[in-house]
């Protein structure tokens, strides 16, 4: 049976609409520590939902937009 090989890389290839990513998956995409992603969520820089177990999950579409560099408002004095 010819089935495509599955990738075991840290960056997931998710194409399903509404796919959710773990903090580790988001961290791999941004090349930061997972704790940084958690801090971003606490600061409101990225929205997260909570699973029934209390774990954070991030919308794949929002993460992709952030990776593409969707402009965000910045303080002109910074």
Task: Describe the fold and architecture.
Strands 1-3-2 form a 3-stranded antiparallel sheet. Strand 2 and strand 3 form a beta hairpin. It has 78 residues and is an alpha+beta fold. It has helices at residues 23-30, 34-43, 60-67, and strands at 20-21, 49-50, 56-59. The protein has a domain at 20-67: Orthogonal Bundle (Multidrug-efflux Transporter Regulator, Chain: A, Domain 2), CATH 1.10.1660. Helix 1 (23-30) packs across helix 2 (34-43). It has 3 helices and 3 strands.
Helix residue percentage: 25-40%
- Strand residue percentage: 5-15%
Major sheet attributes: 3 strands, antiparallel
The computed structural class is: alpha+beta
CATH class of the domain at 20-67: Mainly Alpha
Shape label: globular
SS element count, helices: 3
Q: How many beta-strand segments?
A: 3
pLDDT below 50 for ≥5 consecutive residues: which ranges? 3-15
Proper CATH architecture of the domain at 20-67: Orthogonal Bundle
Radius of gyration: 15 Å
Distance between the termini: 57 Å
CATH topology of the domain at 20-67: Multidrug-efflux Transporter Regulator, Chain: A, Domain 2
How are strands sequenced across the largest beta sheet? 1-3-2
User: What is the H-and-E element order?
Assistant: EHHEEH
Mean pLDDT: 79
